Amino acid sequence: MPKLKLPAPPLPPGVPKPKPKRPGTPKQTPLDVAADAGASAVDWIDERTSLSGGLRWMLFRKVPKGTNWFYTLGSATMFAFLSQAVTGVFLAMYYRPDAAGGAYESMRYVNDEVFLGEFVHGMHKWGSSVMVILIFLHMARTFFFGAYKYPRELNWVIGVALLILTMAMSFTGYLLPFDQRSYWATIVGVNINGTGPLVGPYLSDFLRGGPEFGATSLSRFYAIHMMLIPGAIAALMGAHLYLVAKLGTTAPPWIRAEKSDAVREEKA
Amino acid sequence: MNRQEKEQYLREYSILKAQGKPFFPYAVAKDSAMACVVMLVIILMSLILGAELGPKADPTTTTYSPRPEWYFFFLFELLKVVKEPALTPLATIGVPTICMILLFLLPFYDRSAERRPERRPVATTAGILTIGAMAYLTYLGASAGAPTQIDLETPSRIQAQGAQMVAQYESGKQVVAQSGCLACHKLGKNGNEGPGPELTDIADRLPRQAIQRTLINPTAPMPSFAALQRNSPEKFAAMVAFLGELKEEEGDESEDDAPVNAQRRP
């Protein structure tokens, strides 16, 4: 028998502990065999990775009382990012970052020929709006609840970096369909970057891949959009989540512990 | 936040946490419900709004309107507030950079222990004002109208010069409308007030040669039209001709205005 160390939820105080199984060899139904096989598979993985401890730490930490629906905005933003990642992968299966016409033609092909192509393209396009709205709402919640204060300052800084990366993601993605709108909006955007002091012209040159908007510009935007920034977002999101799990989410600022503390002392 | 306040917060937080519920399944259930809503919204938006693909990008011209994604409107509108060309870098890069730095450093200069929004009047007011300003600027950007058409009548002095001149004027107007100039310039009733200067009477201020030079070698963030001149010189010429004729009208305006205009340009 494998000694299974599945994470077990803590029991509420009133509930009696489940009785241990009676010793001896009970009848093995096919269901038991299947459960045993599953348990030993989990056991096999856990013996090699010790994941169960981390899972237990992640899943069964307490969330302070008073948390409400505003506290789902962060995970919703992450979910929107995951949706963007999945739909982006499907678009990348067809996309060709070729400024000479391949880029536009491949998106035309996705929209007109590929099964559910326009639907997935639309999900990626509008998902970016949803993600930006959610990340701003999440930031507003953090700001108005004072959740960026001690000890969560670092998490706030990482969050602002994630906000900027999300906006950069939108900016670099705008060019990729390579229609008129995206082409000219991106040129204006890059030129705006170029007016910056000191680094501005270099930043513009870097984005364009040269002094003028040309064939290399598109592949550069594509690489930034699908490798550089998503990697950075995923890494920072991991750090953000780790800190959330380690420090805990805040309670709403108007929730106070003293009162219930006093009540508890009275009872005692 | 001094040490005592930190310790008090941590103590209180540990009590609140002890009184709370486990993350799984309570918070996970809420997060999952929210994820379903997000998925549904994305799917519905995709189904209703679609993913239209405009005409293919063409550095020379055709119909295009360089407008950013809607959530950049507030940055775009910010540029229009600043008219002085010398201050343009301040608006384009300076203000957003300063805002970003302020945002990054927020926990390091707001060090009070208070968390309730109604007891942090400065922070709460600043937050609400920022959101209001962003919403207002986004609204301005969204309501600017499609910058792809120009509702200007062909002035009588052009019509007086014959059909060929009218044809050139009309085609130039079309090239300008389709070149996205109106995203940054105001032209008559159309277009945006900035960051570029108003074009309605540009020929009063700039001779035709200067307009052509500006089109080929503009000041950032305006895109250069050198490629248009290279690839289709007749369109570029029509564009320059149209812009070179954008003078304040004397004949078309009411009689009272005429002497004023005459005084201004003796």
Task: Reconstruct the topology from this structure.
The complex is a heterodimer of chains A (268) and B (266).
Chain A: H1 30-49, H2 51-59, E1 62-63, H3 73-92, H4 102-112, H5 117-144, H6 153-175, H7 180-194, H8 200-208, H9 215-247, H10 258-267
Chain B: H1 3-18, E1 21-22, H2 23-49, H3 73-81, H4 88-104, H5 106-109, H6 121-142, H7 156-159, H8 163-178, E2 186-187, E3 190-191, H9 202-205, H10 208-216, H11 226-231, H12 233-244, H13 257-264
Antiparallel strand pairs in B: 2-3
Written overview of the protein:
The complex is a heterodimer of chains A (268) and B (266). Chain A is mainly alpha-helical and 268 residues long. Chain A has helices at residues 30-49, 51-59, 73-92, 102-112, 117-144, 153-175, 180-194, 200-208, 215-247, 258-267, and one strand at residues 62-63. Chain B is mostly helical. Chain B has a two-stranded antiparallel ribbon with strand order 2-3. In chain B, helix 3 packs across helix 4 (88-104), helix 3 crosses helix 6 and helix 8 packs across helix 12 (233-244). The longest helix of chain B is centred in the N-terminal third of the chain and has 27 residues, at 23-49. Chain B starts with a helix and ends with a helix.
Total helices of chain B: the number is 13
The total count of strands of chain B amounts to: 3
Main sheet overview of chain A? none
**Distance separating the two termini of chain A:** 45 Å
Helix content of chain A: 55-70%
End-to-end gap of chain B:
69 Å
Biggest sheet strand line-up of chain B: 2-3
Q: Give the overall shape of chain A, derived from the CA principal axes.
A: extended
Q: Provide mean pLDDT of chain A, rounded.
A: 88
Which structural class do the helices and strands of chain A define?
A: mainly alpha
| Beta strand % of chain A | under 5%
- Indicate the low-confidence ranges of chain B by residue numbers: 251-266
Q: Quaternary arrangement of the chains shown?
A: heterodimer
For the largest interface, the chains and their residue counts are:
A-B, 97 and 88 residues
Report the mean per-residue pLDDT of chain B as an integer.
Answer: 80
Strand content of chain B: under 5%
Helix percent of chain B reads 55-70%
Order of helices and strands of chain A: HHEHHHHHHHH
The structural class of chain B is mainly alpha
Kindly provide the radius of gyration of chain B, computed on alpha-carbon positions and rounded to a whole number of angstroms: 27 Å
